Amino acid sequence: MKIINLTPHALSIVGDNGTLTIPPSGTVARLAVTRTALAPVMIDGVSLTVSLPVMGDVTDLPSAVDDVILVVSALVAGAVNRTDVYSPGELIRDGAGNVIGARGLCAYGNAR
User: Fold this and answer.
1) Is residue 9 part of a domain?
2) Torsional sign, CA 74, 4, 108, 13
């Protein structure tokens, strides 16, 4: 089985018996988003822009290939119904709260 990282950064995926470090492939699968402006909200004298996001099409997601897993963001994975598309699992953080890895993978749609 081969794994391709379609995120912009290296992934450290912790398994039951070791850790895989997966470098970015150079292609980033993304979910197009358009936003419609809504009324701003005022908090402590600061006017904050509010918008309604509408998710669009996924871009730069390759076609399925036998024995290849594609790892993408959770937003992208949730937008497609493919058994070859996963996102990083439960995040692992260091003492300062920085993400240092993920525990396994998450499946979406028609999970294996």
Assistant:
1) yes
2) negative
